[in-house]
Amino acid sequence: MKGKNAIGTWVGFVLILVWCLLPVAWIISLSFKSPDETAVGSPQFLPKDATLQNYRDILDNPDFLDALRNSFGIALISTLLAVIFATLAAYAIARLEFRGKRAVLSLALAIAMFPVVSLVGPLFDLWRTVGLFNTWPGLILPYMSFTLPLAIWTLSAFFREIPWEMEQAAQVDGATSWQAFRKVIVPLAAPGVFTAAILTFFFAWNEFVLAISLTSTTQARTVPAQLSYFVGPDPFNPPYGQLATASVVVTVPVIVIVLLFQRKIVAGLTSGAVKG
Amino acid sequence: MSTTVATPAAKEPQTRRRRGGRADMSDRASAENRLGMKLVAPAAILMLLVTAWPMIQALYLSLFRYRLTNPDDREFIGLSNYATVLTDSLFWQVTWNTVLIMVVTVAVELVIGFAFAMVMHRIIFARGLMRTSILIPYGIITVVSAFAWQFTFSVNNGWVNSWFDWLPWIGPDTNWFGDHWPAMFAIMVSEIWKTTPFMSLLLLAGLSQVSEDMIEAAKVDGATWWQRLWKVILPNMRAAIMVAVLFRALDAFRIFDNIFVMTRGAQDTESSSFLTYRQVIEQMQLGLGSALSVLLFLTVLLLAFGIVRLFRVDLAQARGEG
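Above: the input entities. Below: the structure tokens describing the complete assembly.
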């Protein structure tokens, strides 16, 4: 019985790895296939003779580089601002008694489920009148408000676990209140803030609906939107290799973040949703 | 009888105490109240500004005939836009597609996600590797996932047709995007691949809260594996399952990226979000599009309400927010 279980776990383990990594391996393999190879059709998994041509082309493509710059800029700024706002709110929710606490949490929950596309029309109209259409702030503002709910929920769950009495204990031991905050509270709160930042970054990096609706040129268009316009001269024969290469390039930051912070991401994803 | 009399009597002092407390709320408490409000204000205002305000705007615009290509022709037409939408068979076709995608993907993800969670719960080796690989689909851009699967199912350059040609209905020239059902299938595969990890992590968190002693006790009492699963494990995970289903169902209902990339709505694969987008951005039908936006919003609200009622769990309470 025990042995049977262990075999089952092993099989499950291998299946999960294949499930999660096969499509990633597939776009990586595709990114090394030459344009000639994909043009005639190349249904086998691995490239016939691997080439770096696609990488050279994509890193020479000014539109893609602009999009990459926009993606990084917009995602990082939204993350930074959203995390600051969310930290203030989550601190209040976790530590203070005030009227409207429940209302804020309900609002956050409602926005987390909001159909983003419903906002596309009114925001499109509004952004054009106030001059935010096709600008960085035009995307940063909605990204912040859509990531605030997740950040607030995750952070308030984290903050509730912090032993705040330690701050006073440090002060009793002779630390100034600034020292107590910096040496005791900041290290305790940092992992939570960091986790919220990662989840926020993933959202902004991934977002597509607003990115194609509220931008019109590479001035503000992010990578997901740029990729969808990247059809090449023949719409029935997309540039497979180049699209795969661009996909690999934008997946690299995701893989790096996941490799470095997997434990934190899992904790953040589940703490906000399952327990308080 | 005695209880009905006793209840108001017992409640009386409590309410009086509370009322008294509020009247002479200490300086400290009111300062705390003010600080709390000040700290949440920026976040709350921003959230309302970008969602509530445009939603009110949409409600207003939905009552007009308003096309951006011809803005002077804007005219109040009452509920006609809603009548137009609700009597159009396209709207119902699209809603049906969306509901179908939601139900199928969430059901499949629940099963696969639970299996994954069981494996992750039991595994004692390579936990880091497992976590890393499961987070990659979660973190990957949906558009990238859509491309990866589009190429997987491609006639000329995909491997599905050659790897699965032993199945009677798959040949070397099976065109997955040439017909409604295969195209829907491809879209759902991409959606399921990308979001199963999220589901499995939430279920894993629920699973690890089920007490091992209880499972062991059931085992000693002679419960089979199947009985333990249905009578002990699953009922004790109800809150986690409900959160996972709620979030995923509402997320699946918003499906857009996969359809945009893989079919652009061809072969009747449009979803509600896609139709709304097409009306507003491509056709610039702001009035009609706003009506669609409002209807989509109401549907999501209704769905959320339905799922919460179905599982009878108060989300805030589940988190100890009371």
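Note for the figure: Chain A has a mean pLDDT of 84.
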